[in-house]
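Appendix B, Record 12. Input sequence as logged:
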Amino acid sequence: MELTLLGTGAPDGLPRPSCPCAACATARGPWARAATALLIDDALLLDLTPGAVFAAARAGHSLGAVRQVLLTHPHDGPAVELPPALPPAGRVPDGQVLTLISGHRVRAVPMDAPGTGYEVSSPDGERLLYLPPGAAPAGLDGRAERPYDLVVGDVVGRPDAVARLRAVGAVGPTTEVIAVHLDHDAPPGAALDRRLAAAGARAVPDGTTLVVGEYPVVPDVPRRVLVTGGARSGKSVEAERRLETFPEVVYVATGGRREGDPEWAARVGLHRERRPGAWRTEETCEVAELLGAEGPPLLVDCLSLWLTDAMDRVDAWEDVRWREGGEKALRARVRELVAAVRGTRRQVVLVTNEVGAGVVPATVAGRRFRDELGRLNAAVAAECEEVLLVVAGQAVVLRG
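Logged structural output:
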């Protein structure tokens, strides 16, 4: 089965007409995207968009052989003029199956938002799933018989859709996931590629033709990632995005609770509200133990608070205790953590802080913490396949 993406953008396209934002201003050339529409084996057109005939021609195809046009989502604004020779556009009711004269079978998949998803099976058995913008499959009960060969959907806007499909086995290790419906809220260029790769997905230019069922080059998801940055840089958001398409994640909160501190409680509450409801939270500093156990991906936030706890345990803040064994004890605990990062079989994203680029602390204890955190960050980074520095909400790749 051959799939040609006539467009890969949001319904309004990218750039949006008359939008002055930075993303639209840079969406030129290969980064410009028409509204998403899929042409399957020149016989089935999913979503009718303006300029579909010309888009097909630019991709080396014709719509003359199309036998069925199906819509996935409500279209605002004036109706799109139906090109000559195309059959009327329609929609398959949820749960029903349409068999085309070409031998393709199309099953309508119910969504949790207005619109219809379509599962398309070829006469040879390849299967793809196409999801409308802003929607995820609804009512996924039980395990899928087998993974789809290809999933096309709104990965940036609805990452939980991929998580739901992974949870039931509908997206597996060899499933190719293509991001479409890309709008100006998606980062441009390499930043988009990096975010999608973390989800095991990728974006392609308009006009790309894919062979469904052909063994795809699935993006390699790094097993260990370190995300560092300053205060309020966006590092926690960046770390959370890297795991938002996975159905189960353990969020390791090393800060714990602080009685009588409403500002800290507000910070913790904000983080909890931002995380998917299916994630589980562990409030602990026993990170090495979790890294050594089997289980779903871990998000450790953060190493600087872990180090604070480790220094508290050995009384590293006091000079005499530091010289009489505190330093040695802290080094041992750090080595234990670094060895656990090196040996873990779980996918893990670790968050830390950069505190050595600012004002030199006024106290001996402050300088000691700064130095030890720098050493800890360097040691953990050496064990990670990917290291990111987040500055002003923008992630800079240091490794990977």
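The chain has a mean pLDDT of 90.
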